[in-house]
Amino acid sequence: MEFPSKLIENAVGELSRLPGIGKKTALRLALHLLKAEMDTTASLAEALAKMRFEITYCKTCHSISDAEECGICGNKLRDHSLVCVVSDVRDVIAIENTGQYKGVYHVLGGVISPIEGIGPADLHIDSLIERAAAEDSELREIILAISPTMEGDTTAFYLSRRLRDLPNVHLSTIARGIPMGGELEYADEITLGRSIVDRQRQAR
Predict the structure, then answer these.
(1) pTM for this structure?
(2) What are the tens digits of pLDDT across the range 186-201?
C-alpha cells in the first residue's frame, strides 16, 4: 500500500496493530482523524495516553480501576460473601451488563495454557486463595465463571482442586447456557445472566 505521506503511513502502521483493524480500516481511521477538528484528535490522543499511564488495578480483585480499590469492591451494597472468578476484565463487564449479579469479582488475568507458556503462577490464583482463607473473610461462595474452552476447563479444574478444602466456602460453576468453546464476552446478556442465576454447586 502506497502512502502520500510518511506521517500517514506511520499512523496507519500503529492503528493496524490493534486487534481486528486491517490496513484499509486503519487508513480510513487515520484520514478521518486528519479531517476532524484538531481538538477531536487531541482529545482522543489525550484520553488514550491517560488510560495507558494512569489506569491501575484493584488491590483486591485485580480488575481495572481508577483507584487502589475498584468501585465494585468498595461498594458496601454488593454481596461480599459471593465472589465470581473470571479470567478477564471483559468478563466482568459482560456479567455486569446482565444486571443479574450483585456479588464481587476476582480477575485471574488469563487462563492456564501450557501452549502459550501460561501456568498457575502467572495468574492471580494465590491471591484468591489468600482472600478466601483470610480470618476476616466474608466469603461463603466462589462462582467459577470461566469460558468453557479447553484452557478454561483446565483452569476451573485446577482452581476447584486448590479451593475445595476451604472450610465454609462453597464452589459453584455457571450453568452451561454458554456453549462449549464459547467466550463469555460474546454471550448474549440473557443467556449469561441465567447462567449466573442457575449456577451449579460443585461437589467437594
Answers:
(1) 0.78
(2) 666 656 676 676 665 6
